[in-house]
Design a protein that fits this description.
Strand content: 15-25%
Order of helices and strands: HEHEHEEEEH
Oligomer: single chain
Strand order of the largest sheet: 1-2
Number of helices: 4
Largest sheet: 2 strands, antiparallel
């Protein structure tokens, strides 16, 4: 058993089982390109530049890292395939409602989750009235029951009957 662990340690750092984080295959959220998106995921989670593909918990670590990005609604799959391929399938949040905050307008998804400032708000229904300021950052629920209810309603209207 000790020999197996030693062999695994030696293989783990072999160039054959290491790849750049930026080589992960995924579709980025609409307002970003893949390189920018992967850089954000890596930075936000303090992930290394190089992935060690034989790392036992790599798939779960990557899933958690992608799940923390404010555009990501759901991580569908993280697949690690030989020789050096990592494929991540994601479902992204979609803007459904524009909410004014002072001079700035922000978008929320169907659950009332605040989206990044890059989210497009043109053509979205506007929240009527004055919303309380968001309680958290992008990727977190707005924190105002009225905004969250309006987002659910706007999402239902977009889907139609």
């Amino acid at each position: 058993m000790a020999a197996g662990k030693l062999a695994l340690e030696q293989l783990r750092d072999s160039d054959r089982y290491v790849m750049p984080f930026t080589d992960i295959e995924c579709s980025p959220p609409p307002p970003q390109d893949r390189d920018e998106f992967l850089l954000e995921v890596r930075y936000r989670n303090e992930m290394p530049e190089q992935l060690h593909l034989l790392e036992a918990d790599l798939a779960s670590r990557l899933a958690a890292a992608f799940a923390r990005h404010p555009w990501v609604e759901k991580v569908g799959q993280v697949k690690i395939e030989p020789p050096r391929r990592v494929l991540v399938r994601l479902t992204y949040r979609t803007p459904v409602l524009a909410v004014w905050q002072g001079e700035q307008v922000r978008a929320v998804d169907r659950h009332g989750v605040l989206l990044p400032p890059t989210a497009k708000t043109e053509g979205l229904p506007a929240f009527p009235g004055h919303a309380k300021p968001p309680v958290g950052s992008a990727g977190m629920p707005w924190g105002d029951a009225a905004v969250e209810e309006a987002a659910r309603s706007a999402a239902g209207q977009r889907q139609g009957p």
